[in-house]
Amino acid sequence: MSNSKPTAARRERERDARRRVILDAAKAVFDERGFLNATMEEIAERSELAVGTLYRYFQSKEELYVSLLFEAMEMFRQGIEDARGSGEPPNEQLRAVWRFFYAFYREQPEYYRALMFLRNEGLRDVISAEVIQEINQRAGENFRRVAEIVQSGVDAGLYRADLDARGVVDVLWSLLMGLALLIETRRNLGARADTLEILHREAFEWLECGLQSRVNTTHRAN
Predict the structure, then answer these.
(1) 1-59, what's its fold?
(2) Domain spans in the chain, listed from the N-terminal domain onward
(3) What is the CATH number assigned to the segment(s) 60-221?
(4) Torsion of Cα atoms, 197 then 118 then 136 then 70, to 10°
(5) Distance (Å, rounded) from C-alpha 68 to C-alpha 73?
(6) Tens of pLDDT along 151-175?
(7) Within 10 A of 82 (CB to CB), how many other CB atoms are there?
(8) Which letter does DSSP use for residue 35 in this model?
(9) What is the pTM of this model?
(10) pLDDT at res. 218
(11) Among the residues of the chain, which ranges form H helices?
C-alpha cells in the first residue's frame, strides 16, 4: 500500500507556498494602509487565513516587513549583478543599473514603498537594532557593488579621476527617490505630471555629463 501521508518535501513546498501567500498579502496591505496602520488581522484576512495560522509563520508584522524588505534588497543585488556580468563597458553597466532602478519602481511599487518606510522617523521604535544593522549591511553591499562599477569607469578613463564612487551612488539613489516622490506628489495633487520614464532618462543624461572625463567628452564630441 502506498503511504498517503505527505512527504517532508511536500510539506516544505506547502509551507513555502503559504509563506508566499502571506507575504503577498502583507505587501498589498502595507501598500494600501501603510506599515504603521496595517494590522496582522488585516493581513490574515487578505491571506484568507486565521490569525493564529498567520502567527505560526510570522511572529509580528515587523517580521513580515523585514522579510519583504530583504526580498527587495535581494532583487537589487541580482539586478546589479546582472549589469556587472553583462560584459559591457562600465558606463553601459551603470546605465543598465539606472534602467533597473526605474523598472523596479514601475514593476514593484509595493517593494519600493517598503524601502521608502526606511526614512520614517519611527523606524527605530518598531525595528530592533540588530535588524537595522542587517539592513544597513545589505544596503551597503548593494551600494558597494554599484560603486565598483563607477570606479571601473574611472579606472578606464571614462569618468573623471576625482570622483568619489560611493558618493555617485548616493546621488543616483537620491535621484530615483526624488523623482518617484515628485511624480507621486503631482498625481496626488491632480497636477500635470511628466512620466517618470522621461524624467528618469533625462536625469541620468545630465548626471552622466558630470561624470565623464574631459578626454571621453572630447572623444564623443569628435
Answers:
(1) Arc Repressor Mutant, subunit A (1.10.10)
(2) 1-59, 60-221
(3) 1.10.357.10
(4) -70
(5) 9
(6) 999 999 999 999 999 999 999 999 9
(7) 13
(8) T
(9) 0.82
(10) 47
(11) 8-33, 40-47, 51-57, 61-84, 90-107, 109-116, 123-126, 129-155, 165-189, 196-211, 214-221
